[in-house]
Each structure stands twice: as C-alpha cells, then as structure tokens.
Amino acid sequence: MAQCELCGNDYDKSFDVVAAGTTHTFDSFECAIHVMAPVCEHCQCKVIGHGTEVDGRFYCCAHCARHAEDAPVSHRA
Fold it and tell me: Model-level pTM?
C-alpha cells in the first residue's frame, strides 16, 4: 500500500504520476487533479481537459482566454 500525498489515505490501489521528473502518489484521480491540474487564470476552475495556453498562462477554454487576453483565441486551431 502507498499513501496519497494529498489526503494521506493508505490504499492498496494507489498509483503514481510522474511529472517533470517528480513522482506523485495518489489514491484517486480526484486527489491527483487537486494537486496536478493547472487553474484557469480567468475563472479559477481546475483545467482537467486540454484547455488553452497563452504565453504560459492556462485557461479552461477559449472563452476564458479571450476574456483575459488580448489575443484571438479559438477552440479550433
């Protein structure tokens, strides 16, 4: 069993996520999302899907990116 780095739960079905050379251990996707997912610069929700990135800033969708940036952002490139 391994302990989740967010909630501390010891779980026999925990899993590891490796990002930027660092290993993170979680007991659920929910905990992984809370720790790993970027936050939308405009509406502050967690970016779980593809999202949109403009100059290193993350947005959950093109709508939020358009509201926050002076750039023509669309859902389809």
Answer: 0.78
